[in-house]
Amino acid sequence: MTLIAPLIASFLRERVTNENTRATYAHAFRLLFEFASKRLRLAPSLVGLDQLDASLALAFLDQIQGARRNGSRTRNARLAAIKSFMRFIEPQVPAALDQVRRIVAIPAHRTDLRLVRHLSAAEAHAVLEAPRRDSKSGIRDRAMIYLALTGGLRVSELVGLQLQDIRFDGRLLEVCVHGKGRKERALLLWKEVGMALRAGSPCVARRAARKCSFPLEASP
Fold first, then answer.
1. Whether the Cβ atoms of residue 67 and residue 38 lie closer than 8 Å to each other
2. Which of 18, 34, 70, 138 could bond 132 through an S-S bridge, CB–CB 3.0 to 4.6 Å?
């Protein structure tokens, strides 16, 4: 019998490169192992790959929707983790090809696509003005919020920015954002964002001073 635990560890280490996705998948497998352990009356470390079949996967998905009251989106996220793992082992365990095919064929639940609403001008202004301007941490926080609001950055994208991802081009600010799935996008933001960023980071300010001519004070 092929134990599933070492395969899961290899999958998370070798295939899932994004830290947030790895954490999401790891949580999904923890729930799956807890369910399989109770259903099979085995310790999680003794669950075999051949025991993770389509019927077990469907029972697990029904359980998280029933007992845990998770919605269709969460169910689909757990299913996506299982399918991704099965595709990972497909070339490694030829004997599991039919098992993989049956699990990959499990349909996702349809969900309504909700419009992601943006903040109103008043709301954005209130958030931007929340940090205090008479402290270093407040100036820093305001710069981060300004950059996130104007660039549409996720929190993970914001905190993942490096100094080399930011470049001042005359009166404009160029930012290279590293998103999910190793995707990158380039943003060109206006002067006020650059001024706030320079005020919030002494390191950025020193670099900007060598390349730009506009003043270093934060915008009023």
1. no
2. 138
157-187 pLDDT per residue, tens: 888 888 888 888 777 788 888 887 778 888 8
pLDDT tens by residue, 36-69: 999 999 898 888 998 999 999 999 999 999 888 8
Domain segments of the chain as ranges:
4-104, 121-211
Q: Which fold has domain 121-211?
A: hpI Integrase; Chain A (1.10.443)
- Long-range contacts, 209-217 (Cβ 8 Å, 24+): 211/168, 212/168, 212/170, 212/171, 214/171
Q: Which residues contact 132 (CB under 8 A, 6 or more apart)?
A: 138
Query: What span, in angstroms and rounded, lies between the C-alpha atoms of 161 and 135?
Result: 22
Exposure letters 178-191 (e unless 16+ CB within 10 A, then b): eeeeeeeeeeebee
